[in-house]
From TrEMBL, chain A:
This is ABC transporter permease. InterPro entries: MetI-like (IPR000515), MetI-like_sf (IPR035906). It is a multi-pass membrane protein. Belongs to the binding-protein-dependent transport system permease family. CysTW subfamily. It comes from Pleomorphomonas carboxyditropha. Keywords: Cell membrane, Membrane, Transmembrane, Transmembrane helix, Transport. Its main location: membrane. One of its GO terms (biological process) is transmembrane transport. It holds the Pfam family BPD_transp_1.
UniProtKB/TrEMBL annotation, chain B:
One of its GO terms (molecular function) is thiamine binding. Pfam families: SBP_bac_8. The lineage of its organism: Bacteria, Pseudomonadati, Pseudomonadota, Alphaproteobacteria, Hyphomicrobiales. GO terms for biological process: polyamine transport; thiamine transport. This is Extracellular solute-binding protein family 1. It comes from uncultured Pleomorphomonas sp. InterPro entries: SBP, Sperm_putr-bd, TAT_signal. Keywords: Periplasm, Signal. CDD domains: PBP2_polyamine_RpCGA009. GO terms for cellular component: outer membrane-bounded periplasmic space.
Length: 283, 376
């Protein structure tokens, strides 16, 4: 059956609502942010409408450049590690019995109900010297004395991967389940080992999904500002942390907006690059 | 346990996140409320002849004042207090300012931080107070009378609190005596300090400890010298915290055994049996405070003066110290606080008073230098 294009107001109605929501809750706030990023800051907490580039100029220093590079690096690391863990994990779940699948998925979804604050505090306790997992290792005789694993880069990465994992699995799961089992069977019949079949058949078949997962985990990690504070040292603070500082503590909305706009542009560019690279691979 | 620190300060991230959206929402509510008020007017008049809207930091402070202090005022004067929860940070200042421009006052009298007092002064937001109508003005410690540059009174001290040198008693058997101990090489990777130049007041601490007083921060050169000295401290700091609960937990467990923290909250932790102590170093604790200030758009000038005068009575200040845990804003000798009650909230060692003028005038420069110092 051929789909007729929608005609008239009545047929367009179903699209109007999401369109309206998108305008009200995304386009308008984002537009406001772009506008504010050009406003003139008045020291003392206020700003006046204007068109100045000072907010962007202030941002273009080696210091903020370093922070930006670190933020991107951290987000990429989180995305890659999440993917590396989530792909085999989801593959195994998708191959297991229905009941087992449900249990795993519910457990994963329950992580989503935890706030970032709780995740941060839980990990900082788990990795602490006084109450952390190293005490367990000492008890097992594997370590001399308990050690603090927090704050540090590994702690930040762990916390953020923990947080991004459920999303990665949720994006991967539908494609993995729907993946035609005859594909791997054919590969096996032709003599490929299970591992080889996974790498040469399953992964290429899921390329689009893998890229989508990577991008989602990356964007998700880029916005994180609580975990780097709770689990990291100042050198592990992301640009989002500095944006928060400017917006909430320095009341410098124009500068915060300029940084946020810049961050959005850079991440959009990276996403475009990834998708472009994905297309190239396919061709 | 009520976390006073979280409310009086710039607030936890969770709390402050809300303030962004509250401006427009509040404006909307205010517009709605004005409409509703017109209809409800006869009722209000019948219920209470006189009333005053008072803004207090939402959470622990507002709850304690609602429960222990405001009812006393109503009993004494017959003026009903309608308390309003202020959002943390500077959002309240912005709201008061915008409302005042429209001739509205979301609260008549509000608790205002010292930096917000200065910013409000710049736009004449605070109605000058009449000293003649505040009988208890002589009882106040002069620091707590906030004045315009031309000596008009902009605000009167409402609550005051100390940030002191705190330590875990299991790790440090002896109490430290000076802020200089933070720089001691033996403390490598052991300290928890506040993450912002505008709430840690560590420049002031450095100036008083090493450069003879906060006057050393008068010049940019002096400030840079203090920054250099602070840079030496960096290796000792394990945690630069924005969220008080994070440091408090680490201090109690001994994970991060020393740092700067609120004197009163540490007292509560001691009362709960945790092995921590709060020390007033010989250079003094950091004394931060909030003022009662009257919006220029308020029409309740008479009631506001009665309120501020009432709050400045030594007996009420003693009550606030006992019930809310803040330091009295009046001279100690005028109150009937016992040594233990006074020590729980304050000290007679000359305090370090933050250079709010510097914090406001050089805010952007300071925050940039500071961030580069601790992040770089």
């Amino acid at each position: 059956m051929r789909r007729e294009p929608a005609r008239g107001l009545v047929q367009h109605l179903p699209v109007i609502f999401p369109g309206l929501m998108l305008t009200v809750f995304f386009i308008v706030p984002f537009g406001t942010m772009v506008a504010v990023s050009f406003f003139r800051r008045q020291q003392g907490g206020f700003y006046v409408p204007d068109f100045v580039l000072a907010n962007y100029a202030r941002f273009l220093t080696p210091f903020f450049g370093n922070v930006l590079v670190f933020s991107l690096y951290l987000a990429i690391a989180v995305a890659v590690v999440s993917l590396i863990i989530a792909v085999p994990f989801t593959y195994l779940i998708a191959r297991s019995r229905r009941q087992t699948q449900v249990i795993w998925l519910v457990a994963l979804l329950s992580i989503l109900s935890l706030s970032e604050v709780i995740i941060g505090f839980a990990w900082s306790t788990l990795l602490s010297r006084t109450a952390g997992i190293t005490n367990l290792l000492v008890w097992l005789g594997l370590m001399e004395a308990p050690q603090a694993l927090v704050p540090g880069f590994a702690a930040v990465l762990t916390g953020m991967v923990y947080q991004a994992m459920p999303y990665a699995v949720l994006v991967l799961y539908p494609s993995m389940v729907r993946l035609d089992p005859t594909l791997t069977e054919a590969a096996r019949t032709l003599g490929a080992s299970p591992l080889r079949a996974f790498f040469t058949v399953v992964l290429p078949a899921l390329r689009t999904t893998l890229i989508a997962t990577l991008i989602m985990a990356f964007i998700f990690a880029l916005g994180s500002y609580l975990l780097p504070q709770i689990l990291g040292r100042p050198s592990h603070w992301t640009l989002s942390v500095l944006i928060t500082d400017q917006a909430l503590y320095q009341s410098n909305m124009p500068f915060a907006a300029a940084m946020a706009v810049f961050l959005v542009l850079v991440s959009l560019a990276l996403v475009a690059l990834t998708m472009f690279a994905g297309k190239k691979l396919e061709a | 346990m009520p976390n006073t620190a979280a409310v009086r300060d710039k607030g936890t991230n969770q709390m402050t996140k809300l303030t962004d959206i509250s401006i427009s929402r509040r404006a909307l509510l205010a517009a709605g409320a004005t409409g509703a008020a017109v209809l409800a007017m006869p009722n209000v008049l019948r219920a209470q002849d006189r009333s005053l809207k008072v803004g207090a930091y939402g959470g622990y402070f507002k709850d304690s004042f609602d429960k222990n202090v405001f009812p006393e005022f109503t009993k004494a004067t017959g003026i009903a207090v309608e308390s309003v929860a202020e959002p943390t940070g500077e959002a309240w200042l912005v709201q008061l300012q915008q409302a005042a421009n429209a001739g509205e006052a979301p609260a008549d009298v509000s608790m205002i931080s010292q930096t917000s007092m200065l910013k409000g002064q710049a736009t004449e937001l605070w109605a000058p107070l009449d000293a003649a109508k505040i009988n208890n003005i002589d009882a106040l410690i002069p620091t707590f009378i906030n004045k315009y540059p031309d000596d008009r009174i902009a605000g009167i001290g409402a609550v005051a609190w100390y940030v002191t040198l705190v330590s875990n008693t299991d790790v440090y058997k002896e109490a430290p005596t000076s802020w200089a101990f933070l720089w001691d090489p033996s403390n490598a990777d052991k300290l928890g300090l506040m993450a912002l130049v505008s709430n840690s007041f560590l420049l002031e601490v450095t100036a008083k400890t090493f450069f003879g007083g906060t006057k050393a921060l008068d010049t940019e050169e002096g400030i840079l010298k203090a920054f250099d000295k602070l840079a030496e401290l960096k290796g000792n700091v394990r945690l630069w915290y924005r969220d008080e609960a994070q440091f408090e937990q680490a201090l109690k467990s001994g994970e991060i055994p020393m740092g700067q923290y609120y004197h009163d909250v540490t007292g509560l932790a001691i009362a709960d049996g945790f092995h921590v102590r709060s020390t007033f170093p010989k250079e003094g604790g950091i004394l931060d405070s909030g003022c009662w200030a009257l919006s220029k758009a308020s029409k309740k000038v008479e009631e506001a003066h009665l309120f501020i005068d009432f709050m400045s009575q030594p007996s009420i200040q003693a009550l606030v110290t006992r019930k809310v845990g803040t330091a009295p804003t009046v001279k100690r000798s005028l109150t009937d606080l016992t040594d233990a009650e006074f020590a729980a909230a304050s000290s007679e060692i000359d305090p370090i008073i933050p250079r709010y003028d510097m914090q406001v005038e050089k805010a952007d420069w300071l925050s940039e230098k500071w961030t580069e110092l601790i992040v770089g």
